[in-house]
Amino acid sequence: MTQTDDVVRLVHHVLGVEVVGVYPHGSAVLGGLRPRSDIDVLAVVRRRLTARQRRALLDGALALSGSGEPGRSARPVELTVAVHGDVRPWRYPPVCEFQYGEWLRDSCLRGEVPSRAPSADLAPLITMVLLGRVSLAGPPPWEVLNPVPRRDLEHAMLSGVPELLAELMSDTRNALLTLARIWMTLTTGEIGSKDAAADWALPRLPAEHRAVLAHARAVYLGLEPERWEPLLARVRPCAGQVVRALERPAAAHGVRLPPG
């Protein structure tokens, strides 16, 4: 029994016949899990969740999700739930019914329960599910989900940049690699793994910024320990360089980006 199997079992235990399908996304479908990858799962359901179902999903996710630190078996779990009628037919921004990720652990342990809310992040998430073409339970994803229009995908990714910049010093590795992936997708139209995005971005960065992104990639692949102190003063300039590369497409989408 894998950790992914445990997540699928949790979804079925809590939601039962309301489950339409359960699908992987993220690294699992973009070249395979890396040492620092999360377990990313989308569950599509027929109806909105009850308060009891939200609490049960949250308790289960908290128990299953790990820190992802080297030498520990449990990976971080990101569990997202969407109501089928909220994402098919597609409209933007879509509504997320429930989402748990490790960045929410502290607030959830203080008593907060993830609630229903509009979420542009569902656009790249659903795009990855459809690219993966893998079902963990239920029909294949293309029978359940509509493709996300390119303009909505780009707008969603750009809309996430301010949050990434806000998390730059607290979640440095993930923020830098996600910025690189946004840059690659908006330039090439392709969504790749975080390390593939870094490979694409590194030769396009000025030489003085490459060490920062190279370290983020190496940590993600388990090749180096996560030590940012020697590079700390160079993190924001590196992110700022990527943000400047995104300014033109952001302006075309009417998205205002903060400075890096």
TrEMBL record:
<keyword id="KW-0046">Antibiotic resistance</keyword>
<dbReference type="Pfam" id="PF13427">
    <property type="entry name" value="AadA_C"/>
</dbReference>
<feature type="domain" description="Adenylyltransferase AadA C-terminal">
    <location>
        <begin position="143"/>
        <end position="243"/>
    </location>
</feature>
<dbReference type="InterPro" id="IPR043519">
    <property type="entry name" value="NT_sf"/>
</dbReference>
<keyword id="KW-0808">Transferase</keyword>
<protein>
    <submittedName>
        <fullName>DUF4111 domain-containing protein</fullName>
    </submittedName>
</protein>
<dbReference type="InterPro" id="IPR024172">
    <property type="entry name" value="AadA/Aad9"/>
</dbReference>
<dbReference type="InterPro" id="IPR025184">
    <property type="entry name" value="AadA_C"/>
</dbReference>
